[in-house]
Write a structure and sequence with these properties.
11 helices; alpha+beta; 28% strand; 31% helix; homodimer; 405 residues
Amino acid sequence: MEAEIEFIASGGITSPRGFRAGTTCAGIKKEVKDILDLGILFSEVPCVATALFTTNRIKAAPVLWCQQQLKSGRATAIVVNSGCANACTGEQGLADTKEMAELVAKGMGLSPEDVLVASTGVIGQPLPMKVIRAGIEQVVLSPDGGHELARAIMTTDTIPKERAITVRVGESQFTIGGVAKGSGMIHPNLATMLCFLTTDAAVDIDFLKLALKKAVDISFNLVSIDGDTSTNDIVLIMANGLAENKPISPGSPLAEAFQQTLDQVCIYLAKCIARDGEGASRLIEITVNGAPSVAEARLAARTVVSSPLVKAAVHGSDPNWGRIIAAVGRSGVEVIESKVDLYIGQVCLVKAGKPLPFDRQGMVQVLSKSEVCVSLNLNLGNGTATAWGCDLSEEYVTINSQYTT
Amino acid sequence: MEAEIEFIASGGITSPRGFRAGTTCAGIKKEVKDILDLGILFSEVPCVATALFTTNRIKAAPVLWCQQQLKSGRATAIVVNSGCANACTGEQGLADTKEMAELVAKGMGLSPEDVLVASTGVIGQPLPMKVIRAGIEQVVLSPDGGHELARAIMTTDTIPKERAITVRVGESQFTIGGVAKGSGMIHPNLATMLCFLTTDAAVDIDFLKLALKKAVDISFNLVSIDGDTSTNDIVLIMANGLAENKPISPGSPLAEAFQQTLDQVCIYLAKCIARDGEGASRLIEITVNGAPSVAEARLAARTVVSSPLVKAAVHGSDPNWGRIIAAVGRSGVEVIESKVDLYIGQVCLVKAGKPLPFDRQGMVQVLSKSEVCVSLNLNLGNGTATAWGCDLSEEYVTINSQYTT
């Protein structure tokens, strides 16, 4: 069956049926008045839920809490704050996270185990529980609350990041919504990214785990702003089943449409994060074709998009393509110089390892656009991947050298 | 036997007996007039020689030449140019490298196989052979030429980097000299580092290979400026035996003194490179103790010193220590949060994973010094390592975004 896909204008995390959200200015970000810094996402019915977490060995208290609760494969709500990461905060941090879950559960008639917690912000500082307690009481949930939630989780982000897509397959119709934050590892620093995804589709937990892993591998796992990894990263998906479809499992009629839609939402949000990188003025998209394997294509693409020298050259619109070749050369991926093709935009700069003459001024213009696309063909196999990042600007350094002082 | 070690004031690559060097302004760096860009290092007698090379899959033509010639374990001279890396230049690049070796060999009555070649500079551009041919003819060798050679290999380096140490053990006396360049991967970009080492000690080739590997592992392999790896990196050592000692082999009386001295020269030069990082105003030294193994200590130290967020925080004298903990957490090394101790300078900021109160203004002063020392104890084992790097400044970005345009 053909799937009809529709982007929902102004869609977001509360676009799928049965999800509500609310936020408040609790006062966690002391240095800015009247800024949203606390939010709750809630589903009218319990959800099948799973998440992927930071691989950092130092994990913030809310990460540990979510890992514990999600063993059940279920959740109903998540409370999130920005301005303080609640990381490196020891026993007190764990107690504070638990209290946040308990307060939300009490207000909503849930068990604390049904409530997930996420925090993003400075690490090594205790949560200001007084304002958080008061804040949680103030939150009013609404079916349009998704947009506010997108703002409440922002740190150095300059724009909220949301997306929703509705899919029709025969008689079935479901929606996937998503919200993300991420811009570097700063202001409330070390909080590289959070992403919450919702859907009204009914989905088997095992399929949901697999689908999330697949979608993240080709989206958030291929974004680099500065190579630093947070102690607080979470990508969470909650499926409440209100679409009343037969629960999706591998091979079921909706499986492919669900995966494709989830991929689209995640890639869109991932590109939003790359584009909004701290101090960035350009989105950089690196596609590697012809790698010996997909894994190697991903590694090569990620290495190039992470290279500070490539990023700085793009910032200056400098067609210094040797840096791209050098970055792929050090990526660990098999590269044979005499086989490599390199394109920037539509222009071929290197063919079979041989530099070609090019119009320098034209190339400067290509590099000055808001999206710079680089394509490498290693001509060694069928592995393909695309990664996203941003240019490296003086402003990135300024932002990141002047936080806590 | 006790070893007496003496740093040679104004010592360098030609301090060991029998080495001479000379340079010229060949005109390879067209944009700057009268700047040294070509040099030759020569030993009066053939040397036992070995080198370590970039691990980049894309290797410049001179790297391929040196790898081929050094299979013999012998060399007599090296010719080096800055301003052009002769990388990604295909067959022509290989032919140009060979011609450089042939021209030097002819002028000195050597075989081309005795002459090594190194290049550093922009990649993807052919060597300007006309000026190089003329330049090679102009070079006049002298026993004091080492200092000029230190300048001729500079690219964005702001200071020449040289060192020599003389060692006396009983009746034996030998000297190790060294010169290095490296400051990022720019101006003549992609040329992260070159290092040439000379000694008048007689050394067995197998021991020399081992000793060089050991010294590089604790020096240049623990320096990070921006994480990018060049297509042209070479660390070369030439031993001409004019000290007339019994050739040093593992376990021989001079072996330990030789290794220690080589380590010292390499560490000194590595620190010079870190301190002279593009746009840098501080040397950052990260020591990791208590790692499960030395390899893990090195990985942890290198990860912290490479973190753009740690580097930016140091640049702004911002005591944002959470970034250090987060960097070690993502390094891949075993870390148990509740065991970690963190010191900046002499001040303990985290003890057994617990943040301690500290004098913020005092810490800003510690972070404003020209050398910032950070020490982590993972308290898990006996692995120890020290890595060096520099702060990340706006100027780094400016330098690297405005090269070829």
